[in-house]
Design brief:
Chain lengths: 363, 231
């Protein structure tokens, strides 16, 4: 089947945006060219593989908008009133290096809420809108909560430094697992590390000193490694609880029950589990039947986006070749990083009208 | 029509390639003046020799303007996304060995693995404000490798030559570059990370997969491949 034409996709995007406007959101526009600096600082080198970079001698590196979230957050942090609801529709550009079938340019329609009170109500509002709008397509909705994993890590019986290392790699499951294996003593210490720790004066070998990373930084890390070596390994019990938590994959009510059970032995996740419960109530109040809604504790961990709480996606099960038709989540930390000292709780989601049309044509 | 064979136009890589084909009964040579990039093939029928930069051979094969080509595996993988759907390696030629590796200053006695590099990068960002810079010309290969390995908080900076000097000049904190013996790295006070080998490369003969050709050309090409004993 041929892909829907651009005019039809644009019309569908405008229809969705008008629906979001009708429930109280303000329409916003953002420039297509974004200063590369902020995006690079946020996403790191990975963004270069995903976004088109261009430049001129005057403004330096610019990126073709890879998403709306960052410019909308910047705009809100600079001048927005609170609370705020925004909607937008426009193209985003994603460089594709491996899969020629993936679009490198497509429309997105978004719905973002910035509000300090009732976070679960805002989450339910965004989710329920998208759920209702996409209902005719018969998609599978998946939900998750990065906040529960973050709370579990913060509650581990180990050093602050180890917790920070784990939190830093929540979105990189492979490295996260490698760190857990090392902190729990399941993976052996690399030989070079053992040799370093056994050396009474390793800095004597640090010669000649070259590069911008200075001697005191090297010495400080050696000191940190010595302290770390003295720390008791994570207990097998704690690792088992973390694994049990990460493998929760049920419909929402069963997932909640399972997480409550785990919270008995892992009280640190208690408040995050209570937020999940409040969210399910808020979703029910919006007419979502949570009894049939899926919850996966690991959902959203491999995305690059800075979601740090509730996450969701809508997938066409009969079309595994397609990316999610809609996705979103909570990104409080992003507003903190872009807010230059200010922050505001935020949640949002995007729909791809091109995929909506493609699937509707089939349905 | 004829079959087009692409060979690096300069230096040792060209001479070694000529030698490799020569040992297998196919004589390759330049024609005309020393500086003219035209070549001749004897002993293989209607085959045309095209001399061009090793860095351009991947693209020419992908575009179907060359049927066969000799270049480094590193260049092939760096230049072409989905390289193995565009070309097929026929033979490793046993020269032009080069490993693409990540190297850091020898004075970083606390850094020996990617895990250490990642931790050092995190600390570096807190102290210096910016991300730890890795100088390279192999952006794609390095980025994909570090991403797969879960290394964060680094930034690639472009370096098209004398990459080993960037650390001392403080335009980068670490490098990713090709090395054969490691001598240049050592001379510049750099060491290879224990698990920092990204790719082992050598000069390789590739066949273009997406190229239209006549039955006669196909016969010529397949006969050449058979003569080379790499069928």
């Amino acid at each position: 089947m041929p892909a829907p034409d651009r005019a039809a996709i644009r019309a569908e995007a405008m229809r969705l945006r008008a629906m979001i406007e009708a429930v109280g959101a303000q329409v916003v526009e953002t420039p297509v060219l974004q200063p590369a600096e902020a995006l690079l600082d946020l996403y790191g080198e990975d963004i270069r593989a995903r976004a088109y970079v261009t430049s001129d001698a005057l403004r330096g590196e610019q990126m073709l908008r890879p998403d709306f979230t960052v410019p909308v957050v910047q705009m809100h942090m600079a001048s927005g009133a609170e609370p705020a609801r925004y909607t937008y529709a426009g193209e985003v550009f994603r460089r594709q290096e491996n899969d020629p079938d993936r679009a490198n340019e497509y429309m997105q329609v978004g719905y973002e809420i910035f509000a300090r009170t009732e976070p679960e109500a805002a989450e339910a509002e965004v989710f329920a809108f998208i759920f209702d709008a996409l209902k005719p397509l018969g998609l599978r909705a998946a939900t998750g909560d990065i906040g529960i994993l973050a709370a579990a890590v913060a509650g581990l019986q180990t050093s602050e430094r180890r917790k920070q290392a784990l939190l830093r790699h929540i979105w990189r499951p492979r490295r996260f697992r490698a760190l857990i294996d090392r902190f729990s003593g399941r993976a052996p210490l690399p030989e070079s590390r053992a040799a370093l720790l056994a050396d009474p004066d390793p800095m004597a070998r640090a010669t000649p000193m070259i590069g911008a990373r200075r001697a005191d930084e090297i010495a400080a890390r050696i000191e940190a490694l010595r302290e770390d070596a003295a720390i008791a390994p994570l207990s097998a019990n704690e690792v088992a609880l973390l694994d049990a938590m990460l493998s929760v994959r049920e419909t929402c009510p069963f997932a909640l029950e399972r997480l409550r059970d785990i919270a008995v032995d892992m009280p640190a996740i208690g408040p995050a589990v209570a937020r999940l419960e409040a969210r399910l109530e808020a979703l029910e109040a919006r007419g979502i039947q949570t009894a049939t809604l899926d919850f996966e504790a690991s959902y959203g961990r491999t995305q690059m986006e800075y979601y740090d709480g509730f996450v969701f996606g809508f997938h066409a099960e009969h079309r595994p070749d397609l990316p999610p038709v809609a996705s979103g989540g909570r990104y409080d930390a992003l507003t903190r990083r872009l807010g230059a000292g200010r922050e505001i709780p935020a949640v949002g989601g995007v729909i791809r009208p091109g995929l909506v049309l493609e699937l509707r044509g089939r349905a | 029509m004829s079959i087009k064979l692409g060979v690096p136009s300069k230096g040792r890589l060209m001479e070694k390639t000529f030698e490799w084909f020569g040992k297998r009964g196919i004589s390759l040579g330049r024609v005309g003046a020393e500086r003219e990039y035209a070549g001749v093939v004897r002993g293989a029928g209607d085959v045309e020799l095209v001399l061009l930069s090793a860095g351009e051979i991947p693209r020419e094969l992908a575009a179907g303007r060359l049927h066969l080509g000799v270049t480094g595996a590193d260049l092939m993988r760096e230049t072409l996304a989905g390289w193995d759907t565009l070309v097929s390696p026929l033979a490793e030629l046993g020269f032009g060995h080069a490993d693409l590796v990540i190297a850091v200053p020898t004075c970083w006695v606390d850094v020996d693995t990617l895990d250490d590099l990642d931790a050092a990068a995190a600390a570096f960002r807190i102290v210096h404000g910016g991300r730890l810079r890795i100088a390279t010309k192999y952006h794609r290969l390095v980025r994909e490798f570090l991403r797969a390995q879960g290394v964060a908080d680094y930034r690639l900076v472009d370096s098209q030559g004398a990459t080993e000097g960037t650390v001392k000049n403080e335009t980068a904190e670490a490098i990713a570059d090709i090395t054969s013996s490691g001598d240049t790295l050592r001379a510049n006070h750099l060491k290879v990370l224990h698990d920092g080998l990204i790719l082992r490369s050598q000069a390789t003969l590739f066949k273009a997969l997406n190229v239209e050709m006549s039955a006669a050309d196909r016969t010529t090409r397949d006969a050449l491949i058979r003569r080379l004993g790499i069928d």
